[in-house]
Amino acid sequence: MSFAALSFAARWLLRSVVVSSIGLSSIGAVACAVACAAAPPGPRSVEEGGGEPSVTAQGPNASAPLPGDGSAASDGGTAVPRPAPQDMTSAPAARQGSLVERGLARGDGSPADEALRRGDAAWRGERWEEALELFERARSLAPQDPAPWVGIARARSRDAALVYGAAAGDASFEEVVVALDRALALQSDFTLARFEKGRVLLALGRPLEAKALLESVVEDAPEDAEAQSCLGVALLASGDVARARERFERAAQLEPDRAERFGNLATTQMMVGGVEDAVRSYRSAVRLDPNSAQYQNDLGVALLAGGDLEGAMQHLSRAVALEPRRATFLSNLAYAHLAAGRPEEALRIARRATELDPKLGSAWINRGTAEARLGRLPAARRALERALQLDPTDPRARDGLAELDELEASAAP
After folding, report:
1. Are 9 and 36 in contact (CB under 8 A)?
2. Do residues 362 and 75 make contact, with C-beta atoms less than 8 angstroms apart?
3. Domains of the chain
4. What is the pLDDT of residue 261?
5. DSSP H helical segments within 324-394, as ranges?
6. Helix residue spans in 238-308 (DSSP H)
7. Percent of the chain predicted with pLDDT > 90
8. What are the beta bridge partners of residue 90?
9. What's residue 163's pLDDT?
10. 46: buried, middle or exposed (CB in 10 Å: 19+, 13-18, 0-12)?
11. Res 11: pLDDT
């Protein structure tokens, strides 16, 4: 899948939406986690995992970096490999005429335009070095044409994952920005250059700069779903949830056959407390992409938030079946079993989650909660202390330990 055929995911921006507590009968600090695409630092989410929001990703909390198990996002912080394609909401088919697929050749028959045409073909075929050589040739033949610089930017980006903040600090992406600035210096109103720069700025985690560019792109191309979606991501990252939701709604209207459009929309609906609306949107995403573990997980989380435990269990179990090594999906399923009053099963699943990703704080909290429900207070304390060690600011771990103190004090002679 080429750089141009990827869409942003927004699940990582969903924070603190489904914070639940399951009664004090054996400790109430449970945690629902949601895995998703790379997430920047920010407020805590119920996960901490992902709901990529397409701008991937991403459930009760939002998307986050992929953890050490190579799939889930850990709230404590683990190694951050490149996000998986599904978290990036890759396009199943090219939209002819869309900005994300639009070529640079104009068809005027000039030698420079022929180099652009061949460069477009190489770029679409993911022959990056060939594409770069051809776009450089076009630049030398037409030094005042901004199009070759956009091609150079595309070729240098290769198939890099466009997840919000995933390229922060990446010098190669800064070089891409320089190439796009060259194009805009030659033609400031070149829509495709502004679009590509806006997307790269999102990957670099610079939403305010991206927003200004993408707003102008949407004015030029109001029927382009990816431009609408990218602007939604920039708005969401800038804290403007209401306007972000409008952009995601428009993207879903323009491309009702794309699962990630509904995934993004559901993210903002969850953020404003529209759980029923989010459930409907996630159901649309699951209908369009039933084998996406992410959407199965996110729908399960939304159903949990809405009190549909049976439905939540069905979709969370499906997510785990599709990606059995995704620690955040396992942690969410453990949470559901706790809600259903099955601490033994919750403990088994939460233990597996902590084995896969020892830095996933929500999994340790769920594990500690299950141990406490089973009357194993020392083991519960160890698990909760581990969660607090991973994140000393996590109120769930602190509250759980405080409840343990009360339980032990009440049981003392």
Report:
1. yes
2. yes
3. 9-92+258-413 (1.25.40.10), 93-255 (1.25.40.10)
4. 95
5. 327-339, 343-356, 361-373, 377-390
6. 241-254, 259-271, 275-288, 293-305
7. 70
8. 6
9. 76
10. buried
11. 52
